[in-house]
Amino acid sequence: MPGATSNLEEKLKKGPDPILLTLFANRFMSVAEAMGRSLQQTSISTNIKERLDFSCALFAPDGDLVANAPFIPIHLGSMSLYVLPKANAVIFSDVRSCAHISAVKYQMKLHGETLKEGDVLMTNSPHAGGSHLPDITIITPVFDTGSKEIIFFTASRGHHADIGGILPGSMPPTSVNIFEEGANVESFKIVDGGVFNSEVLYEHMVEKPAQYPGSSGCRNIRDVESDLKAVCLLYEPSVRTDVERLPIQQIAANHKGIQLIHAIVDDYGLETVQEYMYHIRANAEMSVRSLLKDVAKRAGTNILSAVDYLDDGSPIRLSVEINEDEGSAVLDFEGTGFEVRGNLNAPISVVHSAVIYCMRAMLDLDIPLNAGCLVPLTIHIPKKSLLSPSRTAAVCGGNVLTSQRIVDVVLKAFHACAASQGCTNNLTFGAGGKDKDGKNIAGWGYYETIAGGSGAGPGWHGTDGVHTHITNTRIGDVEILERRYPVMIHRFGLREGSGGVGKWHGGEGVVREIEFLEPMQVSMLSERRTRQPYGIEGGGPGGLGRNTWIKQCREEDGDLDPENRDILERDINIGGGGAWGAPEGTKKGKREHVAAWEPRGSIAERAAAQAAF
């Protein structure tokens, strides 16, 4: 362990104090939560400020995830992918050939001992531990004030509404290679020795993506740069060189994460802090081992399996073999479909994110998600499959759609619950990009994910109209959406009858009807439109989703009726979750909706955040 003394190693062998273990778990989580609040308050984009599509986490000096706040599961698993060395593993002399390394460890191997105070790293490449290109990761080393050694890493990953590509929103349903999806940055010092590299950032985000035929650079670089500054300045106190160039509201967030980390070190000493870093990881490991033993005992077998399919028919197949003595398991995805020409390919890091999320979700313990959850697991992914795509494969849909199917398959194999609506329902619209003469026109892009129904389980109904599993974001507030963009929301509510029927009903999906008030490019990336979310133990499946486009009648199309002028709309019907257990009696069970209201939205969130301080 980097920086561990013999005294520390002895303490680790003795085991943790249970009270201190809980205390440190919550202290570490509070650091990530505070960073998240600061990022939300200082960002300007709807995607981060309102939809909360970001994650913050704290990492050990060896790059393993220590703790994170409950943000976006798909982000943090791939940032912290933990890989145990194996005797038969391939040894990579070049880090760029190692596709299964985490985002933090990838950057550590690239930059080695050259990292210094004032450095902040940026990456979004799926082959550097990334998920898909709009998710930009910012990584900052945290140095000890005395020894000047790295004692932590802080990392934040946020989804940016537009980073270039062939369509506004950078989530094109028709992409067939990664160059059509926007800027692809393997590693870049966005802050070098305290200096913010705005010119190089512009080159990466605007100039390079526009070099690919049909693709544009980032359509709104000012928003992206502002949000990245909000992230970069969360951590490193020595980043002061460019403070005078930055918006004043970001200065307060500049020291939040780093101050809290050093406060913990000042309270307990670095050796104790590092000791409990590893105790927390070991505790998560033992919790997962206990879970695996219990699953094998309840199932009456140590062999589990499941298969589900994407809408195009591609199978995702999983077999699980549990070692009941060790509490370990091998998860083998052999039999999964080949890499596809579209964008439903999921990077290896996304597969690990889905698995680590499922393990944590099935634990009935209040522990932080961290690298220890993956230690008892060996994950086999067949080469050339859609879960191990080539470097140029399109992946934007794999991160948000295929990941949900992986979760459904894992939970089905473990017989944990019925399937959720199984899709993040990605809606993007905007304007700008390359014109007919090839010139890059400044514009804008908007992106949101739409909720649906969650799956039922043994003893509970599914939840109505909620973001499920991998996504865990909000949808854009109607008032803010209509104020900032040329759209009108005509309808947004629950879709009655879309949840599966059973002893325990699946959650209901939603309907979202949008009118576009001016010409723009609109796209929808979705799944579960031809294959229903499964029920379990005789429970009915959830309803299929449906996307309906109502075009504006035009004289040039020959369909203009002066007495019936249709508007340009997108009507999106989201499916519900599957049910658990057969309906009791001869009549179909009826879902009763409880009328309840609780304060939520940006104003309520602001008040809650203020109260937390």
Helix content: 25-40%
Largest sheet: 7 strands, antiparallel
- Strands, total number: 18
Proportion in β-strands: 15-25%
Tell me the radius of gyration. Answer: 24 Å
Strand order of the largest sheet: 2-1-5-4-3-6-7
Oligomer designation: single chain
Report the average pLDDT across residues: 82
SS-based structural class? alpha+beta
Separation, N- and C-terminal Cα atoms = 35 Å
The number of helices is 13
> In one word, what is the shape?
globular
GO cellular component, one term: cytosol
Domain Hydantoinase B/oxoprolinase: 17-583
InterPro entries: Hydantoinase_B, Oxoprolinase-like
Protein name: Hydantoinase B/oxoprolinase domain-containing protein
Salient structural properties:
single chain; 613 residues; alpha+beta; seven-stranded antiparallel β-sheet; four-stranded mixed β-sheet; Hydantoinase B/oxoprolinase domain-containing protein; Oxoprolinase-like; 5-oxoprolinase (ATP-hydrolyzing) activity; Hydantoinase_B
